[in-house]
Amino acid sequence: MKIFVAGATGAIGRPLITQLLAKGHDVVGLTRSSEKARTLAEQGAEAAIADVFDADAIHSVIKRTQPDVIIEQLTSLPKTYTPESMRAAAAQNDRIRLEGGANVLAAAQAVGVRRYIVQSIGFWAAPGAGLADEATPLALDASPMIAGGTRTIAEIEHRLLTIHNLEGIVLRYGFFYGPGTWNAPEGDVAHQVRQQQFLMIGKGESVWSWIHVEDAAIATVAAVDRGNPGIYLITDDHPLPVRVWLPAYAQWLNAPPPPIVSIEAALEAAGADAVYYGTQLRGASNAKAKRELGFQPRSLEWLVETPARAI
């Protein structure tokens, strides 16, 4: 099949292109940079150069390339993962996902694309007991930035899944780790952990669901081939509280143990969103993806190489 990837040069876009090509698909990667177009060509993909905010240009490249499937991985995220940088990036990230994504989706409908897959977020489920599944509501009443983000992804998911002449699939990914991510050994979170700037808040009860970017890419290719319209949670097998994964991550990085701070101190120093991430996240179940996509994610690498020690 011919697959058009919007967001082809991001953290997941790069391994996704590799996996699609390995499966024998013809791949077109969207970029607005000539330099990144060369990178796509070196991978073996065709590059389509256009700005996602230019609706006519997007329609033109999709009409010219005539893809069977579009995979939308559009984001605009900062290189640093801090409350300040995330707040500063939020407006542009929302714009590229809402406005840019709408242009890609409209072109897909106009051209007659059969299947459309969009990136979403698997760790913003509403609080509650047990693991979240695909039917669990999003955390629309969370802290300010997270609540805004959940409204954005709720709109993105709704507009795709209510189109009746398109096979719409939403992939809610867990926290990315692996090459090119904030959590890679050379990434910004790793740097913060080494500098003891990534805090354990309260009792570290927040439960995080992870996914290696290469496993996320493999699951996405499986959704191209045999996914059913609807939502899939693409996460690993063992959601873990911060009190377990963060000390193991620090040990894996040969970093000092993470500092522990009270919720009150964290609210003052880092704000409500950081406290939500540290205390309120709910883990997710990948049972549907394993059942329908044959999804088999790897274990979290720093727990494979370093025994987990809760503190």
Word description of this protein:
- With 311 residues, the chain is an alpha/beta fold.
- The protein has a single domain, classed as NAD(P)-binding Rossmann-like Domain (Rossmann fold), CATH 3.40.50.720.
- It is built from twelve helices and 13 strands.
- Strands 3-2-1-4-5-6-11 form a seven-stranded parallel β-sheet, with helices on both faces.
- Strand 5, helix 5 and strand 6 form a beta-alpha-beta unit.
- The longest helix is centred in the first third of the chain and has 29 residues, at 83-111.
- The model has no long low-confidence stretch (mean pLDDT 95).
Compose a concise summary of this entry.
This protein has one domain: 3-Layer(aba) Sandwich (Rossmann fold). 44% of the residues lie in helices and 17% in strands.
Number of domains: 1
* Corresponding CATH superfamily: NAD(P)-binding Rossmann-like Domain
Q: Characterize the biggest β-sheet.
A: 7 strands, parallel
Strand order of the largest sheet: 3-2-1-4-5-6-11
Q: Counting H and I runs of at least 4 residues, what is the number of helices?
A: 12
Q: How many DSSP E strands?
A: 13
State the distance separating the first and last CA atoms.
49 Å
What percent of the residues sit in helical stretches (DSSP H or I)? 40-55%
Global shape:
globular
The quaternary structure here is single chain
Rg computed from alpha carbons, rounded to a whole number of angstroms: 19 Å
The helix/strand order is: EHEHEHEHEHEEHEEEHEEHEHHHH
